[in-house]
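Pair request: fold both.
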Amino acid sequence: MKSTNPSINTVLILGAGELGLPVLRAMSRQARLSPSLKISVLLRPEAARAVSGPLRARRDELARLGIAVVEGDLQQNGVEALSALFRSFDAVINCSGFVGGAGTQIQIKITQAVLQAGVARYFPWQFGVDYDVVGKGSGQPVWDEQLEVRHLLRAQSATEWVIVSTGIFTSYLFDSGFGVVDAERKTVRALGDWRYAVTLTTPEDIGRLTAAIFFHRPAFRNQVVYIAGDTLTYRELADLMQAHWGVEVNRVLLNKERLQAEVRNHPHDVGAKYRLAFARPDGVAWDKANTFNARQGMAATTAGQWLASQGG
């Protein structure tokens, strides 16, 4: 077993997308204070070798940040190949997202590779709801896979792990595809009950807070750390949108039965599955006052602040 206080000199971040880039930027800022710390990022070969366009621009930014690029493919590479890649690093932060989608078991594969490689410290892709509380059978198969990742981590003691629970990305709550906020019809739909709440955090705040958690002393070990930009009930969300739009909003309650019927009638509708999964009184929201960022006095973007920043 590796030391319970491992010396972390090399960190590999998986992915440079919506969450990966904010984490890379924040980790790079922290690394400037620790000259011995080397940050690398895993990119698919086509992204790592891009010679033009957005992928090249991203690669140039990574170079400016002093981040080394490692080539690999989380979807195509098997456990053995990924394990060989991960073995050179003291820590891995997984910002890959739900690559591959439901049923691919890709997060389980990545976790198996991390454990097989003997990585000292692992931040898995768990930047979401509290899968322990939600449990299995939420209506969202990807969440069942996320719970299995936690089981794998807890069944071993060689790799220390930290889970950062963030709630949903702030923008997703307002995305028309989620179906809660409908700007065109000036409508807010509550999932399950107007008293139910949802926790949300922007990717930029998640990046900054994940870096703070990574470098926090004493170190977090084998535990879930909660952060939040905001936590609000659907009633509070409707009030917020009414103030933002300056008109009376239409308030529509989507009860559990109606949400279950939507999933039955549209089995391939990812949004319908997410709406059903969020229609619950627990596991998808927590008190912001009890979060890491609140205890540390670190400001994070609220739903209202995010709305104001978007204009309109």
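--- second member of the pair ---
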Amino acid sequence: MPKFSWEARSKAGSVQKGVMEATNSAQVEAQLKRYGFTGITIKEEGKGLGREIKFGSGQKKIQTKELVVFTRQFATMIDSGLPLVQCLDILSGQQENKTFKEVLVKVKESVESGSTFADALSKHPKAFDQLYVNLVAAGEVGGILDTILNRLAAYIEKAMKLKKQVKGAMVYPTTIMAIAVIVVGVILVFVIPTFAKMFADFGGDLPAPTKFVIALSGFLTKYLVVIIAALFGLKFGISKYYATPAGKKNIDRFALNAPIVGPLVRKVAVAKFTRTLGTMISSGVPIMDGLDIVARTAGNKIVEEAIYRVRQSISEGKTIAEPLQESGVFPPMVVQMIAVGEATGAMDAMLNKIADFYDDEVDDAVGAMTAMMEPLLMVFLGTTVGGLVIAMYLPIFKLASTVGG
């Protein structure tokens, strides 16, 4: 009988790991759920990815846009009264992405064999995350699957838009910095040595800026391979450090408090938290399950810990607002609005209002950051390249003045 390693979160919120013998992964999952575990990840020992979808080996990744289109089409078909299996058969047949098509065929087969739609989706976590699965499960139980799927599509679209905004904010400064590094590198490695040879043939004492640039060029030319290797080593070291619990926590805390970028990261975290939790509560997902999923999809360790403290507070019969305020991550206005929503019983509506507000805030923050960084980057690029050019022409000016005198 095969062995399956598993990782899950207990009722108390702690992460547990173990190994279980079973016929298949579904049996392991059912057993763990009976014990009250959530957030279950299962891998068959000796097979690496286990039940996860293998996107390597030439398989195409499932794009977020494809998931949105599938969800909207599925909602329309369900609303029209088509049977679940027939909807999956039609949508898998018209799917151009072979990886996604294989997933949908397997989901259809699971449903035909007696699984619920949510359980069938849960077997493919690379395509359908826990938020998706839990909302579908709530829709099946409540008999409002078409409504839930439309909410899911709207949520995914807004999350995709938010992600694009953040990526868009990073494209401009990254491009300018890359151009600056390439231009300066080319000048130092290929252009400066030509000037240095010419100045050596002329003889005479060179100005201090010219000496510095020639020395920098010589150092860069001599140790270029070492410098590149060191940069890759630094990148590798940071990624390894970020993979550790302490490293992830420290880097994520720095990201929240960093100048210029920090406010944007914080606003994105608030928008994502409120949008996700609001969507789950309005869809009928229990708040404890919702908070568990939101925490694991937060993308920031500091935010994740703050959400788990909220979950613990609720399990002890306390309010949501107090631990949110103590975390220092969420602005006072957000905490107060959530407290009002909690008191009035309109938590989902309040969370969605906050999310809409912070979506606009992210828009403004991206625009402000771009507007602020643009002149700074231009000054940096102009000063660096201009400084190199001036340093190289100073001896020529000095020689010209000497000849003229």
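Observation on the second member. The two ends are 96 Å apart (CA to CA).
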